[in-house]
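Re-run with default settings, no changes from the original entry. Doing this only to confirm the output is reproducible before filing.
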Amino acid sequence: MPRKRKTGKPLRLHGEIAREIGVNIVSGVYKPGQLLEGEIEASDHLHVSRTVYREALRILVAKGLVVSRPRVGTVVSAQSTWHLLDPDVLSWVFESEPQDDFLNDLFELRRMIEPSAAALAAQRRSESDIEEIEHALNVMADESLTTEAGREADLAFHSAILRATGNVFLVSLTSGVCAAIAWTTIFKQRDKALPRDPVPDHRRVYDAIAAGNANAAYAGMSNLVDLALADTMAARTAPKKTKKSR
């Protein structure tokens, strides 16, 4: 039976092999420039067919993690070529322990994009945009981010703001931004409760957008992202809870 991702969606076998190799790459077990096992050796070692292994490598090539070189083999690519905002690649990073620099860079990107997007949304939003953002906020408040429904609502909130900008290039960033939000949220509450309720921070952003106040929307989203970074760094350094033996 195929294993499942944390999202609950089953992986096909070649996807599971890609995940296993991908986690080893992004966690540093396999280094940039390192030559992976040959197709025959790898398929025997992983107990899969050569076809499955080839399909797994195609996934990794598409995500920029490896490159296939004629008469050489498959080589781990430099980090600069990795598609770090790809939802799968981000999930693989968060399966291990992301480094402080990685987290800082990720939130630095969010701070460059999301506050400006919120300000633009405040200027351009339609009534349907406001209703969509408000609905997502209300579901978040009802369900909390400890549930899958609440986390999906959080992503819907941020997605709706990007769409409300009316900028096709900002909208195209939705998948990457939401992947960053999804995996940092899961990371923040691993084996512990969320450090605080983030709904009031989201509500301030919504209120500013609904009021058409671009400056307040920018400030509110900046504060939201900064607090999310603080929570994530706290989760990075806090010891995990250990299960008591019976």
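Residues 1-10, 242-246 have pLDDT under 50 and may be disordered. The radius of gyration is 20 Å.
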